[in-house]
Amino acid sequence: MTHPVFRFAPSPNGQLHLGHAYSALLNRQLAREAEGRFLLRMEDIDVTRCTRELERGVLYDLTWLGLDWEEPVRRQSDHFDDYRAALERLIDADLVYPGFMSRGEVRARIADHESGGEFWPRDPDGAPVYPGDDRYLSATERETRMAEGAPFAWRLDMSAAVAHVGRALSWDETGQGPEGGTGPVAAEPERWGDVVIARREIPASYHLSVVVDDALQSVTHVVRGRDLFHATAVHRLLQELLGLPVPYYHHHDLVLDDDGRKLSKSRGDTSLAALRNSGATPGDIARMIGLSSSGA
Ligand code: GLU
User: Fold this and answer.
1) 49 and which of 13, 79, 117, 293 could share a cystine (Cβ 3.0–4.6 Å)?
2) Between the CA of residue 156 and those of 2, 91, 149, 227, 260, what are the distances in Å?
3) CATH T-level assignment (fold) for domain 80-217+229-241
């Protein structure tokens, strides 16, 4: 029998907080219950915000919490070739295009549209979807702009990608979606519009690297916060386009602050380091988030 594989995949771009402790300990608990393996992955493709020093802090916090994981830890910035290979397959299939519009141009384009009284679609996170005008640039125009060094990001041609797959997609949810309940969830990737698949300088985005790595690491159970529930639709689409296996998904509740807001790395007060410095033990942390630190 092959064992289930779980992973905790933090981005070392700040200090871990109680929400990360919850996700990591829940992953470990579910892995133990399923007699599965537990992996750690550093999602550090954002090489400007992620640092080795922050990574050391993440490792320290997780060890302090009592976690251990299989070595070696996969660090995404060591594997850009894997993401580049996946990107090239999507380029060859004509399913991505270079999007040249700057944030300002996107804003102006949408403001112009909405000034006529028409609503511009928003993605599940509430951000306006990318206009995608440059989807229609000629190959020559694209090449010229790229050769001139114009900034761009590789964007998925969502309509083309959905048409290419040609059937409805879903995933098996074992946690709770925003509507609650476990079971099959219909994926609606089109709600995201033409998402970024890779950057000009970095041949990856979160969406691309997460599906490539979950497949390369044979992850069978993705356990992560509910804030990523809707992103799973994009992940299902990419898995289908790239012929990758589909894990189970378990989206867990987020740990909220006293005002009911999601915790953030920029607010230090609930960081594990701050709690430790004020005398909290790993057992206290586990109690604060309602999980067992021993994983027993
Ligand atoms: N790296 C992501 C984060 O820190 C988590 C990605 C995932 O679990 O799929 O929010």
Assistant:
1) 13
2) 34, 9, 21, 21, 34
3) Glutamyl-tRNA Synthetase; domain 3 (3.90.800)
User: Widest CA span of the chain, in angstroms?
Assistant: 62
Q: How remote is the CA of residue 137 from the centroid of ligand 1, in Å?
A: 34
pLDDT tens digits for range 193-249: 999 999 999 999 999 999 999 999 999 999 999 999 999 999 999 999 999 999 999
Q: State the average pLDDT over residues 91-107.
A: 96
CA 202 – CA 84 distance, rounded (Å): 9
Which residue's alpha carbon is nearest to atom 2 within ligand 1? 10
Residue 228 near ligand 1, beta carbon < 6 Å:
yes
Atom of ligand 1 nearest to the CA of 7: 8
What is the number of the ligand 1 atom nearest to the C-alpha of 20?
4
What's the mean pLDDT in 142-157?
Answer: 97
11 lines ligand 1 (CB under 6 A): yes
Compute the distance between CA of residue 287 and CA of residue 292 in angstroms, rounded to an integer: 7
Looking at domain 1-78+256-296, which CATH architecture does it have? 3-Layer(aba) Sandwich (3.40)
Is the CB of 210 within 6 Å of ligand 1?
yes
Q: b/e per residue, 221-236, with b = 16+ CB within 10 A?
A: bbbbbeeebbbbbbbb
Testing ligand 1's pocket by substitution, the residue of 224, 238, 239 carrying the most ligand atoms inside 8 A of its CB is 224
pTM of the model: 0.94
Instruction: Answer yes or no: is the C-beta of 82 below 6 A from any ligand 1 atom.
Output: no
